[in-house]
Amino acid sequence: MSVARVTEIIATSKNSFEDAVSKGVKRATKTLHGVTSAWVQSQQVVVKNDKIEGYRVNLKVTFILKD
Which residues pair with 45 in a beta bridge? Predict the structure, then answer.
């Protein structure tokens, strides 16, 4: 039987929400082994001078704990 853990990370991108998610998952898998899924808890845009300057996502990343 496997036991999983969920951790929350925040990732940003200047390009898009999709890019922010990709960057977040890529970074999470460098440290966390056995990542099985990630879901977007929330999305935000960073606005500066009336323009969107960045995209931010809060991700919940699930990974399997080693025995």
Answer: 55
* Residues 26-41 as b or e (16 or more Cβ within 10 Å = b): eebeeebeeeeebeee
Sheet holding 35-48, edge to edge: 4-13, 51-64, 35-48
Taking only the tens place, the pLDDT of each residue in 37-59 is: 999 999 999 999 999 999 999 99
pTM of the model: 0.88
What letter does residue 2 receive in the DSSP assignment? -
Tell me how far apart the alpha carbons of residues 59 and 21 are, in angstroms, rounded to a whole number. 8
CA distance 5 to 50: 39
Tokens of 12: 């940003």
